[in-house]
Design a protein that fits this description.
The chain has 305 residues and is α/β, with parallel strands linked by helices. The chain has ten helices and eight strands. It is elongated and about 95 Å long.
């Protein structure tokens, strides 16, 4: 098998035919020896039926059917574990990333000896608020992460079989695939493109899911949040020592401060800081708990090869 393309699908019945038409057309220009692995992530509409109907006219379309909705990153992981190609592509099922770019990625993998080529978004045509939130996340992640990952990249990419093997060896449960893809190293390149907005249907990655993905990225690849706890704690201790020294001096000189306003304000402030950082610590502890449970990242109900 020359090329495998993994596409997670969740309630995309309006897009299935145009998605597969455009994708097969683009891949045919590279090689006819390919497979498109659609991962049905617990769709509740007719997405699965439409994929299976399309498969009747092109058997290169294969389907991994998950037992329930496990989430975007888990669906990708499931599809990648079934990929047989020497070159493996990843693309969302909303057609916001142009399948035609796989030709350029494929050429770069072969002619420039890259192991991974990902799409770098030089512009986005999505809603203003979503663009701003995603831009903010990428700026925060690029500054906090310990892997110096490039900003404004997503799952859209192609890699070699060797890179995929390393990629699949990372079995953590809270997954941010662009970060994991960059973590494995190898020679990585990129292609610039403009990401369009959805033309059909609604975005499945709503604010809540995007926020969870952002937390997975930051807590998985940065020690800054937990380090921030003791830094601010240390600053608080220094201020407390300074404040105590001032109060003692005032007391000794007979100019003691009357009233409890400053005391109560300090108590409320320090209590809020403690609760905030207990939340950060709790986030890390919860993630440790999830990892120690060692539950599977996904469960496959059926694979239609």
């Amino acid at each position: 098998m020359d090329i495998s393309l993994v596409v997670p699908i969740y309630n995309e019945e309006l897009l299935i035919n145009s998605l597969l038409d455009e994708t097969t057309s683009s891949l045919n220009k590279i090689s006819e020896d390919f497979e498109i692995i659609c991962v049905d992530d617990g769709s509740r509409d007719s997405s699965l039926e439409k994929i299976l109907a399309y498969r009747k006219k092109d058997s290169r379309v294969k389907v991994v059917i998950l037992s329930r909705n496990f989430g975007h990153q888990a669906a990708y992981t499931a599809g990648l574990s079934y990929a047989k190609g020497n070159f493996i592509g990843m693309m969302d099922g909303d057609l916001q990333d142009p399948p035609a770019l796989f030709s350029k990625m494929y050429d770069m993998l072969q002619t420039k000896n890259f192991d991974v080529v990902f799409g770098h978004r030089e512009a986005r045509k999505e809603k203003f608020m979503k663009r701003m939130l995603i831009l903010l996340f990428h700026k925060i992640f690029s500054r906090l992460s310990n892997i110096n990952a490039p900003a404004d990249v997503g799952n859209f990419s192609m890699m070699t079989r060797g890179a995929l093997k390393a990629f699949l060896s990372l079995q953590e449960k809270n997954r941010y695939l662009p970060g994991l893809r960059y973590f494995i190293g190898f020679r990585q390149g990129f292609v610039e493109y403009k990401r369009s907005d959805r033309e059909i249907g609604e975005a499945k990655m709503n604010f809540t899911k995007l926020f969870k993905l952002a937390l997975d990225a930051i807590f998985s690849f940065s020690k800054i949040p937990i380090r921030l706890c003791w830094i601010i704690g240390l600053i608080g201790i220094l201020f407390s020592i300074g404040g105590s020294a001032v109060v003692l001096y005032k007391k000794m000189t007979g100019d003691a401060i009357s009233g409890w306003t400053s005391v109560l304000t300090s108590m409320y402030f320090l209590g809020s800081v403690q609760l905030f950082f207990l939340g950060i610590i709790g986030e890390y502890i919860h993630r440790i708990f999830v990892e120690t449970q060692n539950r599977p990242i996904f469960i496959v109900r059926e694979f239609v090869d």
